[in-house]
Write a structure and sequence with these properties.
2 helices, 37% strand, Sortase family protein, Sortase_F, hydrolase, 9% helix, mainly beta, eight-stranded mixed beta barrel, signal, two-stranded antiparallel ribbon, Sortase, Chain: A, hydrolase activity
Length: 220
């Protein structure tokens, strides 16, 4: 993603629904400013969670009422990846006036896109992004995301609950080719962690790394 003033550039409209497609088209800016992770993109692996499906209103309401996680939804505050000894703070990430997704400049902190689902919700993608590294701080919390084995546990703290996810797929996308359904709020519940990867040329990484995970359980 193209680097702009330490932010994740993403052109979106100010409206949640209208912003999905625009964000998917322009969210190629998760670069942070060094070449620490330069190299070929990671190999795709695993099967993606089921995409959004269209169902009658009554069926959708039933799904919301009897979702896989019977927990109150709240914004995420921490992400833990035990296999990589990651314990990162998460901040809400809105959209700047120029249309950029304003994740934290500090690569050790992650940003939860406020237009995405809440952890524990019965539907939608919880989208969390972070810089892979920075010239000032070095490797970030998601520096080794591309190497995370499938089947690993990711714990997301949200309110007074911890929602646990299991990684099921990894994909590497060209910086302007993030799939539109990554930004939908009406698909099956899942977590998507996003950072940069691939070669570092002309001040930007060429690819985005996305790790997908499905909910396993929720605990106090």
């Amino acid at each position: 993603m193209r680097h702009r003033a330490g932010r994740h550039a993403a052109t979106v409209s100010g409206r949640r629904v209208a912003g999905w497609a625009a964000l998917a088209a322009g969210a190629g800016a998760l670069a942070a400013g060094t070449a620490l992770a330069a190299g070929p993109g990671p190999t795709d692996a695993g099967a993606l969670p089921a995409p959004a499906t269209t169902s009658p209103p009554a069926a959708r309401e039933a799904q919301r009422s009897a979702g896989p996680l019977a927990v109150p939804a709240a914004p995420p505050t921490r992400v833990g990846i035990g296999a990589q000894r990651v314990d990162a703070l998460v901040e809400p990430a809105g959209v700047l006036p120029g249309g950029e997704l304003a994740v934290p400049d500090d690569p050790d902190r992650l940003g939860w896109w406020i237009g995405s689902a809440l952890p524990g919700a019965a539907r939608g993608t919880v989208l969390v992004a972070g810089h892979v590294d920075s010239a000032r701080s070095g490797p970030g919390a998601l520096f080794r995301l591309a190497d995370l084995p499938l089947g690993s546990t990711i714990e997301v703290r949200a309110g007074d609950r911890t929602v646990r996810y299991r990684t099921v797929a990894r994909r590497s996308y060209a910086k302007t080719r993030l799939p539109a359904d990554l930004f939908r709020a009406d698909g099956e519940p899942r977590l998507a962690l996003v950072t940069c990867g691939g070669a570092f040329r002309d001040g930007a990484y060429e690819r985005n790394v996305v790790v997908y995970a499905e909910p396993v359980s929720a605990a106090r």
